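Input record, target 12 of the design panel.
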């Protein structure tokens, strides 16, 4: 039997509405010591630019990509941090969404995020995770270790999107 490893994962997305473009990113700590001490040199940072319809889809894509990137052993435990309330509340909405076949009760149309909700729920059935919601953009004096880790990722994601959009204008 392999040793259970806990990964600490932070996910975020920054979305540009006019361009329908997002930068998604995640930060992974593979040990508790580096995580608790905010040692970013020991963490893995990933950012990528994607086209997307809305911010929630971008947040979900970031979350799913992050979990898939570290989930090689089903015995591993994942602690996933997000500032996206839609993600943190998704499990509580699962039964209602599935009973409605991921369609709007009013119009009967498929929900715009249905594909990602289904992927999220499939992951939930195979991954040992805990999802922790963090309030984004806290004042410096109120930040915990987790808030500092999230802020680092948030700054990287925002900077990456700004740089991408600036380079588009320069073309």
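The sequence produced for target 12 reads:
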């Amino acid at each position: 039997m392999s040793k259970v490893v806990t990964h600490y994962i932070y996910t975020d997305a920054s979305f540009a509405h006019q361009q329908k473009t997002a930068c998604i990113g995640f930060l992974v700590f593979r040990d508790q010591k580096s995580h608790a001490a905010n040692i970013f040199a020991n963490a893995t940072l990933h950012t990528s630019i994607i086209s997307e319809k809305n911010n929630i889809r971008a947040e979900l894509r970031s979350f799913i990509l992050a979990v898939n990137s570290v989930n090689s052993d089903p015995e591993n435990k994942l602690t996933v941090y997000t500032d996206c309330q839609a993600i943190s509340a998704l499990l509580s909405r699962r039964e209602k969404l599935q009973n409605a076949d991921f369609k709007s009760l009013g119009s009967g149309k498929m929900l715009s995020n249905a594909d990602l909700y289904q992927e999220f729920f499939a992951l939930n059935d195979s991954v040992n995770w805990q999802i922790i919601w963090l309030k984004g953009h806290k004042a410096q004096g109120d930040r915990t270790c987790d808030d500092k880790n999230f802020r680092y990722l948030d700054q990287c994601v925002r900077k990456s999107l700004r740089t991408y959009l600036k380079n588009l204008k320069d073309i």
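The mean pLDDT is 92.
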